[in-house]
Amino acid sequence: MSFISRIITLFGLVLLAHAGYSAHEHTVLYSNVHLSSASSALPHDIVIEALVSLLVVSTGLVLGAEKLKPVSWSEWAKEVERQGGASNPYLRLEERYGFWDVRAKRKEFTDWIQSGTDSSVKA
Question: pTM above the 0.90 mark?
Answer without folding.
Answer: no
